[in-house]
Each structure stands twice: as C-alpha cells, then as structure tokens.
Specification:
This protein has five helices and three strands; from the N terminus they run ααβααββα. It has about 130 residues and is mainly alpha-helical. The longest helix has 17 residues. It starts with 13 loop residues before the first helix and ends in a 23-residue tail after the last helix.
Length: about 130
C-alpha cells in the first residue's frame, strides 16, 4: 500500500532546523526558562527579573544576552534602564507549552488548568 505523501508537511530546510536547535539549546537552561516565564506577562528590567528568578543581576544579564542573540527576547532602553520582553508570540507559546507539558507529565491535576472559578475536568490529551 502506498502512503499519500502530498498531505504531509515538508521537512524544514537545514537553516530552519539549525535555528530551531539553537532555540532548544537556549531553553535547556533552567534560569533562562524562568526568565522567559517571568516575561510572559510583559517587559521587565534586569533587576526585577533577577529578583523574580532569585539570581544576581550580573548572572541574569549574561543569560539575557544569550536569549537576545538567539532572538528570543528584545530590549528597549528607557533612561539608564534596559527593559526586556519576549520577541514574539511564538516564543511565548513555546515556553508556555513546554511548562504545561511538564505539568501534565508530572501527574496530578496541572496547575495551568486551575483557576479560582474553574472546576477540574478531564484533559482529553492525558485523561486526567
């Protein structure tokens, strides 16, 4: 039996795959994931980000420089402060999906399904 390949997605080119690998390399560090998570709600300066993730401003600055070079965050200068924000909605979605997947994988009722008004319900993807 022949499989219909016309409806399949084409394999991305080498350049796109290499860029995706670099993105995943940037996300392989817990501090960088926490920094991106902190930025999901909007831009923040280095000192606030450092406080949010419990790291030194100097260390956070180094991580942010790497995230910036990988095009995961962008900056805006206001006076002598530099504000960081997530580069695009694709980056936001990637970070959210990674954390939500981890919540589903760890068992129990995922935190992202909880809210003050929500009643727990079955997740069709996991059956929980």
């Amino acid at each position: 039996m022949r499989v219909d390949t016309q409806s399949r997605r084409p394999i991305p080119g080498d350049e796109q795959v290499e860029l995706a690998v670099r993105v995943f390399q940037m996300l392989s560090d817990a501090t960088r994931v926490r920094l991106l998570w902190a930025l999901l709600d909007g831009e923040m300066p280095v000192n606030e980000l450092a406080a949010a993730v419990g790291k030194s401003p100097a260390g956070v600055s180094q991580h942010l420089a790497k995230l910036r070079m990988a095009h995961l965050v962008r900056t805006r200068r206001q006076g002598n402060q530099i504000f960081y924000r997530i580069e695009s909605s694709h980056v936001s979605q990637l970070v959210e999906d990674a954390i939500y997947h981890a919540e589903h994988s760890s068992g129990g009722f995922p935190e992202h399904h909880r809210s003050a008004d929500a009643v727990p319900h079955d997740d069709p993807a996991t059956g929980t």
